[in-house]
Design goal:
Layout: E1 2-10, E2 16-25, E3 30-34, H1 41-49, E4 56-61, E5 64-65, H2 74-78, E6 81-84, H3 96-107, H4 111-124, H5 140-152, E7 158-162, H6 170-185, E8 189-194, H7 198-201, E9 206-211, E10 214-215
Parallel strand pairs: 3-8, 3-9, 6-7, 7-8
Antiparallel strand pairs: 1-2, 1-4, 4-5, 9-10
The chain binds adenosine-5'-diphosphate (2 copies).
The site of one adenosine-5'-diphosphate has 13 residues, from helix 4.
């Protein structure tokens, strides 16, 4: 469960990126986050994942009030969250396999179970057989799948994706959406942002629309 209670985020020396937002996303829900560039979508996702902290108000994730949590406790909350970053954050000096292994290394899984899970995640996104490949050799769509495998390999209860279909043509984008739907179907809470609402329309899910950090009409 994700709950925002009167949340404001002000970046140093900047305007309020999020302005007094209150809403709730239920466990197991799949929701879209829409709005133009600069509307506050990334910031909202970063507040959920604890990458950014609220300036005012409370952000509650899986029963933990992130606004009151000590920084040292944040990693435990993050273990239950998977993030597909807008800028990918792929490490091009290591293989596809090692990129997906990264979150498990951080958590400290044993090697055998980790290897099994990395294979399961790569299988899920259709990249099995490319384990040893350097990510630079993957197509744009494949790189996006790599990011998704890395985001789900630790079986997070919450999966966040920041504009995962940006820069992909429509067929690829729909593929990616189906992939997120499959994680939603096995129980994950899924939040996906996009500035293009046409992709969302087909899914009949709740759409949270933002404009200038507030709910859009
Ligand atoms: P979106 O994801 O919808 O494009 P963002 O959350 O990235 O929106 O940005 C919302 C607003 O916050 C914008 O005005 C942006 O310029 C500002 N902003 C985002 N990140 C930072 C930052 N690190 N420092 C200062 N301002 C920022
Ligand atoms: P595993 O046995 O490793 O869980 P599965 O075949 O069950 O593999 O799942 C394939 C991929 O989907 C794995 O990467 C797994 O982490 C991911 N996955 C399975 N269930 C969930 C879930 N509830 N939330 C997020 N990811 C999941």
């Amino acid at each position: 469960m994700i709950k925002f209670d009167q949340v404001t985020k002000r970046y140093p020396g900047s305007i309020d990126a999020i302005k007094g937002l209150s809403f709730q996303i239920d466990r197991g829900e799949m929701v879209f986050l829409a709005g133009h560039s600069g509307a506050g979508k990334s910031t909202l996702l970063k507040l959920i994942s604890g990458i950014e902290r609220a300036t005012m108000g409370n952000v509650v994730v899986n029963g933990q009030n992130l606004s009151k949590l000590r920084a040292s406790q944040l990693p435990y909350v993050r273990q239950h969250i998977g993030v597909v970053f807008q800028d990918h954050k792929i490490l091009y000096d290591r293989s596809v396999f090692d990129n997906v292994m990264l979150p498990l290394d951080i958590i400290g899984f044993d090697r055998r179970e980790s290897t099994r899970r990395v294979h399961a995640a790569l299988d899920k996104v259709g990249l099995l057989g490319k384990e040893k490949t350097n990510p630079i050799r993957l197509s744009g769509g494949e790189q996006q799948r790599l990011c998704i495998a890395r985001a789900v390999v630790h079986r997070p209860s919450i999966l966040l994706a920041d504009e995962p279909s940006a820069n992909l043509d429509r067929a690829y984008a729909l593929d990616i959406m189906e992939l997120f739907k499959s994680f939603h179907q096995v129980g994950a809470t899924v939040v996906i942002s996009a500035h293009d609402e046409t992709l969302m329309a087909d899914y009949g899910r709740r759409i949270i629309r933002l404009a200038h950090g507030a709910f859009a009409a």
